[in-house]
Amino acid sequence: MPITEILEQNAALYKDEIALVEINPQDMEKKPSTWREFSLIEPSRSESFRSEITWDEFNRKANRMANLLLTRHIKKGSKVAILLMNCLEWLPVYFGILKSGAVAVPLNFRYTAEEIRYCLELADVDCLIFGPAFVGRIEDIADRIPRVKTLFYIGEDCPSFAEPYYSMVSYCSSKTPEIPLTDDDDAAIYFSSGTTGFPKAILHAHRSLMHSCKVEQQHHHQTHDDVFLCIPPLYHTGAKMHWFGSFLVGGRAVLLKGTRPDSILSAVSEERCTVVWLLVPWAQDILDAIERGDIKLEKYHLDQWRLMHIGAQPVPPSLIKRWKTVFPHHDYDTNYGLSESIGPGAVHLGIENIDHVGAFGVAGYGWQTRIVDEKHRDVPRGTVGELALKGDGVMKCYYKDEKATAEVLEDGWLFTGDMAKESEDGFIYLVDRKKDVIITGGENLYPVQIEDFLRRNDHIKDVAVIGLPDSRLGEIAAAIIEVKEGHTLTEEQIRNFCMDLPRYQRPRKIFFAPVPRNPTGKIEKPKLRKMYGADQLVAMQNEIEN
């Protein structure tokens, strides 16, 4: 069934129970009166702004959104983009778009004005809903997005080129619009993260969204009493699809704006959160703060916290060992997925498989996996090949890109571009992105393996390994190392540490610098290759000329 029916059910079953909570440690000021008309405001229990809505309010706000769109001739199949920071309005707007029969198009809040324009054009967007943080960017392109006939602004001081959302939606009915929806209807367009080039538009049906609800709930056993802490950006599949497991059973969600260790632990403590999804840097920051003595765990109520899980990138086994030392009662899981497979859960470790930390795991609920060679033939266990996925969460297509779609979809199988291998006991280990493999002197180097080794060094906070051009070997491995606060490292110390690696895997170049990651935690390797590769090319040219 369409995912919108879950919201209707929750509103009926849990009408006056809290559905969503927003906590903003950075915002001590009250929201404007227009906000208070649609939200419950309670006094803060800590030094942070806090607001909440019930399931009934959530559903009525979504219905008003849907009915507003219908007055603007948004119809089934129309595209409506969302450009908002995480906030209490985000999910009601998203579900309102779905209830109208339109296709929701969440946009990355880091996009430049030109990237926003590109995505609006690529997805054939008819309506854009945006917030205060984006006024300047939208103003830059407002006269160059002719297809976008309607722009709604959520906030005070509405710019002249948009319409005020709050005043418009207040006149709309809060009843569910009678728009028939099926599992096969288009539901959402997500954009690839851009780690492999310019973003592609990924089209999903309602079936995909429902599948992600079932997968997450099956993996992590959420009940109505669980409280889910959501920190990553809602525009990305990872955040919403993890929450979908709680959504399926009417569990509460807490939207935290901020990633400081004290903010995370305060939210877990005060909101009695039981399930928390973290990115690797956030988990590292929490552990580092505890080890430095900046955080005293006895100040927090954490006994109810039962599950910590991580995804979006390879997870160093050393990190989980540290985590389980500090939080021995926590269940742990890691997930693998792509936006093309509606986010996390296509492969997962499973909370019962803590002894296999280091593996990404096994096929998730309702998923099939294969590891294949370049001709899409299965490879023997233990052999590196490309990971392929099949299940109800696979995208319909890359929107308006038949060529790119044909390159990754075949007989229902999605070929991920990720290199992996399967152990004899059936666990899948991610090796690297196909496009990130470094070929040096004819040998294949997998950066993830080198990164995992380097992260064993207690002084390293983060690390990225990339390939740089080399006139003799074709490519060489370079390590960009971010050192922990209060620690020092030298190039000589790193080279000595790497003596346990085979000679061909040792980084030839070492740089000490911050490791850039996108909002979903993935290392921005194209940016690093551009930053460091340009210098390497100049050096090669000078070498040739001399």
Describe the protein:
- There is one protein chain.
- The chain is of the alpha/beta class and 546 residues long.
- The chain has 16 helices and 28 strands.
- The strands form 6 sheets. The protein has a 10-stranded mixed β-sheet, with helices on both faces.
- Helix 1 packs across helix 3 (55-71), helix 3 (55-71) crosses helix 4 (90-99) and helix 5 (113-122) packs across helix 6 (135-141).
- The radius of gyration is 24 Å and the shape is globular.
* Class by SSE composition: alpha/beta
CATH A-level architecture of the domain at 53-219: 3-Layer(aba) Sandwich
CATH structural fold name of the domain at 53-219: Rossmann fold
Q: Give the total of beta strands.
A: 28
Unreliable parts: 28-46, 540-546
Strand order of the largest sheet: 2-3-1-12-11-13-14-15-16-17
Rough outline = globular
Rg, nearest Å: 24 Å
Question: Given the structure, what is the number of helices?
Answer: 16
- Output the CATH class name of the domain at 53-219: Alpha Beta
Strand content: 25-35%
